[in-house]
TrEMBL record:
Catalyzes the deamination of adenosine to inosine at the wobble position 34 of tRNA(Arg2). Zn(2+) binds at H54, C84, C87. It comes from Chitinophaga horti. Belongs to the cytidine and deoxycytidylate deaminase family. ADAT2 subfamily. CDD domains: nucleoside_deaminase. Coiled coil: none annotated. Binds 1 zinc ion per subunit. It holds the Pfam family dCMP_cyt_deam_1. Homodimer. This is tRNA-specific adenosine deaminase. InterPro entries: APOBEC/CMP_deaminase_Zn-bd, CMP_dCMP_dom, Cytidine_deaminase-like, tRNA_aden_deaminase. Signal peptide: none annotated. The gene is tadA.
Length: 147
């Protein structure tokens, strides 16, 4: 049974909430292929003391390990916040078929650096705005609580 984009973004939001509970910036991601979640991740930068431990990177690694493959052309990643340039590069090399993100990230998103040029594989489809307000509010609330 194929579930909706909304269902999978809710799963990414669940990952984001886990990150927030762990004191991490609340960003979450899930990788889906053939209606199955094959990778999950949430920010673990502080936990792992690793600036590359973004939600997308962790979800991608889990997906690669699940499949035993470095390419996931038939997969979709759902991520709560616009990927940064690093994560966009990883998504490019994965040849992922589709990227769906919730909120745009004016400060650190890939668009800030790349402008109109897409950093993704030419065949990758990009969509954004799904639960954008909820995704962005998690991040705003996280930083407001720390000020």
């Amino acid at each position: 049974m194929q579930l909706s984009d909304e269902h999978y973004m809710q799963q990414a939001l669940r990952e984001a909430r886990l990150a927030g509970e762990e004191g991490e910036v609340p960003i979450g991601a899930v990788v889906v292929m053939n209606g199955q979640i094959i990778g999950r991740g949430h920010n673990q930068v502080e936990t792992l003391n690793d600036c590359t431990a973004h939600a997308e990177m962790i979800a991608l690694t889990a997906a690669f390990n699940t499949l035993g493959s470095k390419y996931i052309m038939d997969a979709t990643i759902y991520v709560t916040l616009e990927p940064c340039v690093m994560c966009s590069g990883a998504l490019y090399w994965s040849k992922i078929g589709r990227v769906v993100y919730g909120a745009q990230d004016e400060k650190n998103g890939y668009r800030r650096v790349t402008g109109a040029t897409s950093p993704f594989h030419p065949k990758t489809k990009i969509e954004h705005g799904l639960f954008a307000e909820e995704c962005l509010q998690l991040v705003k609330d996280f930083f407001a609580a720390r000020r």
